[in-house]
């Protein structure tokens, strides 16, 4: 599958019901995705349950070797995978976008394969010997989002396979082709039935989260859908890892250098055109440097080209779907109507194809404004002025989600002190949103629960068993 046409042909259904998938930048047809049913899901789960014991029996060493071969296969098909991702999701090839995302898939597979999880001796006092082991769960259901469809799929798939599980993946209805293609490439190296994609609607998703033969569900997406999964999984007492919505705050302290931090602030907020759960979505800046930060951030934002993803010079793309475009439009309009100051953008061109919303910076906005209090999930950043540190920490904590946050200051001790007071699963210092395959990642409050990545991520894909004696 070393060409785009070969990759697309490999995932195009030969029979059965299908639907068109359109490019959010141009409106052109990208391809056709299968429309699977609950019966298809049941068949996939049955095949996974049949394939899983032999995969678990291979042991860690052989599974590790296989995952590294899967990473090789992804790298061999990297360019057609990136092109398909750009066409379907909308993100450009360059910058921290499509090629970056495909590269992260192979990198995460290799890091997961390299992560060791040894049995832990918890007591050995001469009378009692107890060890903690982690055994495979069985079949894992993975439900992914449309913003980083390939990368987040691998975040779910890699540790599940590494720990000896089988996986059934349900991609977003907006971006099924990307995940179908990724899994088709991966399955060149995996046993039949072990990893399957089922493309379906909410009925299929509800069946996956309640299926009696699925032992764990991993979900990345909205808090509302996460709550529904919790309810539907309750009768079968499934294990859950939920990475849900966020409304990340960044706090710029008075000693920060506006020019030095401007580009970091920009990418913290506008990576993937703002369509990232742990993007910087509310920026609080001390009054002493407020105007300078606004000026420097605007200067950086003005240089970032937005357009069709296959155009090599672009680094920002469209919103992936009209529903998200409408959310961003509504929130920016509410900010403008309130009298907030538009530094950049805020004026989408509606008579052209594609869901392009211009890079938008909104200053002098009240903390209670909907653009601040609701997750915009798009390229619009509110910038809030503050003077009192205790007050701004309270404002940053004043939402019901807590995925990430950031503090910006050259004084690391001071920044870490502020970070410790933020109610968020991860707080970055002088950056925002960066993830690492060995650093645990998860949310606080209604941003979900459970950890991904590293040793903790592997543990989450196993059943703990204590052998005592």
UniProtKB/TrEMBL annotation:
GO terms for molecular function: oxidoreductase activity, acting on the aldehyde or oxo group of donors, NAD or NADP as acceptor. The keyword Cell cycle does not apply. This is Aldehyde dehydrogenase family protein. Keywords: Oxidoreductase. CDD domains: ALDH_AldA-AAD23400. The active site is at residue 243. It comes from the Bacteria. Pfam families: Aldedh (PF00171). It comes from Cryobacterium fucosi.
